[in-house]
Design a protein that fits this description.
The complex is a heterodimer of chains A (about 350) and B (about 290). Chain A is an alpha/beta fold. Chain A folds into 2 domains: about 45-150, abc type-2 transporter like fold, CATH 3.40.1710.10; about 155-349, no CATH class. In chain A, about 65% of the residues lie in helices and about 10% in strands. Chain B has 2 domains: about 10-215, 3-Layer(aba) Sandwich (Rossmann fold), CATH 3.40.50.300; about 225-295, no CATH class. The chains are: A alpha/beta (about 350), B alpha/beta (about 290).
Chain lengths: ~350, ~290
């Protein structure tokens, strides 16, 4: 019995002093933090562009009615129908409600509502149709409001899917591959030789990071070419991808510089990859909404910048917030990587 | 600004360094003359690698001062890197690169022309293997590549950590020859080793470090003379039986014993035996280096 207790104690100590213990403990924490925040508790909303009626009283009433509906979100309001359709066809909303045919009869709305839904978003289309039908039914008989349904075509599956792949490429190279470039140096003791050579830590980082960024850009270009993806805004897309690469490569290098070995780096890299990629995959679908916190992940910012650049003819200013955010992440990541590399040889501060 | 006299390539003054509660260096002071080979001797954990790392700018001392090639090892670390060459104990080459590619990489880091790489490859008898991947080379050949890498930029001071450890005797002799060649080209060599024979054969001066303190610093000959015990191996024979005895060289009773053997015509042979650095180490630390290592 004593021998068994001794063995159990030994195994326990070996277990908790192993770095994998941190991963095992960290896993549920990270799941709670990243994955939990990725799912919002609110009900899914279908986004619509609304073409408002000219009459202010009619619009005020319609806005009040629609604003109280829990399943629709008026993302865009315009007075021009073609603008609303254009917004929907760029994939920014799931449908269009044309309220210009509405009037007020006493205190009740009457007339016609034009409903346009995206055939590529069947879930949202059903939510929009059902919501409008319920709204009209709620007014009670006689029902003075009629609906007309039209179908539009938003973003193609290719345009919808490719952004996810581009983000995945950036993350895989940045987060999963870059750490290996440093852990391998450490395992072969070559990093120490580099650190006593007259080469700055910035140079080391730029050397390694430059290859990572170049790989990301090359793989992105190859993916776009091989998939014959139509790109609405090439320059914004190129700059968003570049900013994304600059943001994620230093994160990978920091991980590599902090991890004592390749085996230690891999689980962390994998976990971080999933944590950053999952909210992006969710943002590409409509089923569950993603929370505001998940929206602020750099991977989500990258995804939104890539998506809008691919599907919409935009100017550089339209993706400037995403680019600025990713560049800020890049600056912080680079500083962290430089600090982490400096720890390697217990070199001078 | 350097306070280093021209005669010295390396000067350590009261260097101290601790790792947590462990005092790795307890105030080491040391001068290494220019154009010499100096050995840092001591078992693993004695502090020689810590001293080595401080002098090569890899580690900041807790106290004291170090100067190498006239440069402060803390304040002028960037310039120091250009003026020294370092060979690590681990054979840290890029295994998937060829011999030449390894050297060309570091030539680029030091701003040295590629033609220098080819010159060194020829000088070190590595030219025929220049396209071989490093992981296909023998230990000895890899060590030669590492020394070539450390010499690419013609450093004023070359630091070598265990340069012959793990090499077979032939390679060890060849590496020793290369190191002498460096010294003969007016560079200074500081080598850390626990191989007393190598140090004895190679070094102009040696320091012995034990538990973080410098316990001796002189030429090997002076140390052996001062601290080692020479002996005589005396063989005497009578009636066909030969007996060998090791007796102290510097003892009056030995002279009496030899005189008696000569008088009795029983002396068969007499050989003097030099003290070794290991004897010196034992004298200074109370144990042989082999015991200290184990």
């Amino acid at each position: 019995m004593r021998a068994l207790a001794g063995l159990l104690r030994k195994e326990f100590i070996a277990f908790v002093t192993n770095r994998t213990f941190i991963v095992i403990v960290g896993l549920p924490v990270l799941i709670a933090v990243f994955f939990g925040l990725a799912f919002g508790n609110e009900r899914p909303l279908a986004t619509v562009a609304v073409v408002r009626p000219a009459d202010e009283r009619v619009w005020s009433r319609a806005k009040t009615d629609l604003g109280s509906v829990q399943t629709l979100q008026m993302s865009e309001v315009t007075t021009d129908f073609s603008t609303a359709i254009d917004i929907a066809e760029r994939g920014r909303v799931s449908g269009v409600l044309d309220l210009r045919g509405l009037t007020l009869e006493g205190d009740r709305l009457a007339g016609r509502i034009g409903v346009s839904v995206d055939e590529l978003r069947p879930v949202s289309a059903e939510v929009i149709r059902a919501t409008v039908a319920a709204w009209i039914a709620a007014a009670g008989p006689p029902q003075p409001v009629a609906t007309s349904l039209t179908v539009l075509r938003g973003v193609s599956p290719r345009q919808a899917t490719i952004p996810l792949w581009l983000v995945a490429i950036t993350l895989i190279i940045g987060i999963s591959t870059m750490p290996l470039t440093l852990t391998e140096e450490r395992e072969h003791r070559t990093l120490r030789a580099l650190l006593v050579a007259p080469v700055s830590r910035w140079s080391l980082l730029i050397g390694k990071g430059g290859i990572g960024v170049a790989m990301i850009v090359a793989m992105t270009a190859l993916t776009l070419v091989l998939n014959r993806t139509p790109i609405a805004s090439p320059l914004p897309l190129a700059l968003v991808i570049l900013a994304g690469a600059l943001a994620f490569v230093p994160i990978g290098l920091t991980l590599g510089a902090l991890a004592p070995s390749q085996n230690a780096a891999s689980p962390f890299a994998g976990l971080l990859l999933i944590a950053l990629l999952l909210p992006v995959t969710l943002s590409q679908t409509e089923a569950p909404g993603i929370s505001d916190v998940a929206r602020w992940l750099p991977s989500t910012a990258l995804a939104s910048g890539v998506r809008v650049s691919i599907v919409t003819a935009i100017s550089l200013a339209d993706v400037l917030p995403q680019i600025a955010y990713l560049v800020a992440v890049a600056v912080i990541g680079a500083a962290a990587a430089r600090w982490a590399i400096g720890r390697e040889a217990v070199v001078l501060g | 600004m350097s306070n280093l006299p021209d005669a010295f390539a390396v000067r350590a003054v009261d260097l101290r360094r601790s790792f947590g509660s462990i005092q790795a260096l307890r105030g080491v002071s040391l001068d290494v003359p220019k154009g010499s080979i100096h050995g840092l001797l001591g078992p693993n954990g004695a502090g020689k690698t810590t001293l080595f790392r401080i002098l090569t700018g890899q580690l900041k001392p807790d106290g004291g001062r170090g100067e190498v090639a006239g440069l402060d090892v803390v304040a002028e670390r960037s310039e120091l890197r250009r003026r020294i060459g370092v060979l690590f104990e681990m054979q840290n080459l890029y295994p998937r690169l060829s011999v030449r590619e390894n050297l060309v990489l570091f030539a680029a880091l030091y701003g040295v022309a590629v033609s220098v790489v080819d010159e060194l490859l020829r000088k070190f008898d590595l030219f025929d293997r220049r396209t071989s991947k490093v992981d296909t080379l023998s230990n000895g050949m890899r060590q030669k590549v590492l020394i070539a890498r450390a010499l690419l930029h013609q450093p004023e001071v070359l630091f070598l950590d265990e340069p012959t450890t793990g090499l077979d005797p032939n390679w060890s002799l060849e590496v020793q020859e290369l190191i002498r060649g460096v010294r003969d080209a007016d560079a200074t060599v500081v080598l850390a080793t626990h191989q007393m024979e190598t140090a004895d054969a190679l070094c102009d001066t040696v320091s012995i470090i034990d538990r973080g303190s410098l316990v001796a610093n002189d030429t090997p000959r002076a140390l052996k003379r001062r601290l080692g015990k020479r002996s005589l191996l005396v063989e005497t024979g009578a009636n066909g039986a030969i007996r060998g005895d090791r007796i102290p060289f510097d003892d009056e009773s030995s002279a009496v014993r030899i005189a008696a053997a000569l008088r009795d015509r029983t002396l068969v042979s007499i050989h003097s035996e030099e003290a070794t650095l290991d004897d010196v180490f034992r004298q200074l630390t109370g144990k042989s280096l082999k015991e200290a290592l184990s």
